[in-house]
Amino acid sequence: MNVDAAVQNALARIDQDAVTRLALDLVSIPSPTGAEREVATFLADRMARGGLEVTLQDLGPNRANAVRIIRGDGDGPRVMFNGHLDTSITGIDAEDYPMTGPLGPANRAIRVSSRTGTFSAAALTT
After folding, report:
1. What is the DSSP letter of 74?
2. Of 17, 33, 45, which is closest to residue 91 (Cα–Cα)?
3. Do both 67 and 103 map to the same domain?
4. Beta bridge mates, 66
5. Distance in angstroms (rounded) separating the CA atoms of residues 97 and 110
6. Collapsing DSSP states into helix, strand and coil, what is residue 68?
7. Are residues 58 and 35 both part of a single domain?
């Protein structure tokens, strides 16, 4: 299988509704910088329920990372994917209103943009 066919095959398997729901779930969990444990725990639990090998890496009070390892056969290069767990919102409506509007991160159009807390990831729009 050539690389282009493999990429197209992988893209065809993405459930856009599931990705949108996951993004909305993630930005709905208050996780300002220094208080990412709740969102890390959410991700670790979700990955574990899917049968994946996952570790919750403790970084101190209210801080953690969700670490997922995919084991290969040992002959290839090691690859690391990294993403931020902290958001730009606090979970306090009065403070977050300028960024989230009256409906919070999940608005009627189910539009998730970089202003709702997904700064370092590609924004989703449906």
Report:
1. S
2. 33
3. no
4. 56
5. 17
6. strand
7. yes
Is the per-residue pLDDT at 82 higher than 90?
no
Question: Whole-angstrom Cα distance, residue 117 to residue 36?
Answer: 13
Task: Give the pLDDT band of residue 122 (cuts 50, 70, 90).
Answer: very low
How many whole angstroms separate alpha carbon 40 and alpha carbon 20? 18
pLDDT: which is higher, 58 or 97: 58
Domain enclosing residue 62, as ranges: 31-86
Question: Per DSSP, what are the bridge partners of residue 3?
Answer: none
Distance CA 70, CA 52 (A): 8
Domain shared by 56 and 96, yes or no: no
Task: Kindly state whether residue 3 falls inside one of the protein's structural domains.
Answer: no
Q: Per the domain annotation, does 5 fall within a domain?
A: no
Residue at 73 is within a domain: yes
Mean pLDDT of 96-110: 59
What's the Cα-to-Cα distance from 11 to each of 5, 104, 123, rounded to whole Å? Answer: 10, 29, 17
CA–CA separation, 1 and 7 (whole Å): 10
In this structure, are 59 and 93 located in the same domain?
no
- Copy the structure tokens of residue 57: 């890496």
Query: d(Cα 47, Cα 118) in Å, to the nearest integer?
Result: 20
In a domain, 40, yes or no: yes
